[in-house]
Amino acid sequence: MTDQTTDQTTDQTTDQTTDHADDDDRATDTATEAFVAHRNLLFTVAYEMLGSASDAEDVLQETWLRWVKVDLDQVEDRRAYLVRITTRQSLNRLRAMSRRKESYVGEWLPEPLLTAPDVAQDVELAESVSMAMMLVLETLSPTERAVFVLREAFDVGYDEIAAAVDKTPAAVRQIAHRARKHVDARRPRQSVSASQTRAVMESFQRALDNGDLQGLLDVLAPDVVLVGDGGGIKQAALRPVTGADKVGRFIIGGVGKKANRFAITPTVVNGSPALFAHLDGELDGVMAFHVEDGRIAGIYFVRNPEKLGAITAEAPITLR
Predict the structure, then answer these.
(1) Of 10, 38, 50, 275, which one is least surrounded by beta carbons within 10 A?
(2) How many CB atoms neighbour CB 232 within 10 A?
């Protein structure tokens, strides 16, 4: 073989390698563009299935690693395919989390999300990520939760859900019916506006700031339930506290011991007005509320520091 022939062969090989590299780069760019376009949706799907922002972020990483290996020329609906991958990864993680929760110290609450104020104006979105609803979802099996979330919150078709959870469409319809019935029996009795919740919360905060037990009792529903989550790291009630008098005295007693070191500030968590609790200038916990008939029916106090990492920045959540 002459030197000229060798050079030509080398050039051709180099050109082919360059072409393949360019194709790979274009495919990666296309995959990245599609993933970024739907990232907020995928995060919301994972969070509603898991109740944990940190686990939802891990699921997104796993989704991305699988997505870049997909031949996009064979994908008709990229959004649907991404939701499918996210659902499968969330189901795997949800089953592992179920085992973790069995050894969890005290009550388990969802990881609170710092959300933009305008999320509260989107009633459907705010309700789907509310603490009260997230706790109801905890009572479903992993598959029931996946089916319910995809169908009710994201309006995914039965055929696509079936592909995501490895069930037949007929089975998915039955699971959806069973899950909907289960949730309807346990979901909050009524939704109130963000302004109504904010007004009640402000009265709650004033009573707390002043150590006013009667003022606190005035805004608590007779059958109010307080659920605390310290995870064995921070002190919290190991079981729910029920009844206005017990809840009021529990709160006043807990704050009274360190009133001069304790500060409360308003915020928006999981699409609803909430309160940050600071102790000695450091974030100590998040209080979320469920309001019915102008009174607080549920208080959810997350103190576990391992669950407070997601409230340093607003979570970009969406149902579409």
Answers:
(1) 10
(2) 12
* CA distance to 12, 27, 66, 74, 82, per residue, from 23 (Å): 16, 6, 18, 16, 22
With contact defined as beta carbons under 8 Å apart, do 83 and 319 qualify? no
Please give the residue that has the higher pLDDT: either 194 or 91.
Answer: 91
Strand partners, 300: 227, 288
pLDDT reading at 112 higher than 70: yes
CB atoms within 10 A of CB 191: 19
**pTM, to two decimals:** 0.88
- Which residue is associated with the tokens 């994972």? 46
Please list the residues that pair with 301 across neighbouring strands.
228, 287
SS (H, E, C) 96-165: HHHHHHHCCCCCCCCCCCECCHHHHHCHHHHHHHCHHHHHHHCCCCHHHHHHHHHHHHCCCCHHHHHHHH
d(CA 53, CA 223): 30
The tokens of 304 are what? Answer: 């576990």
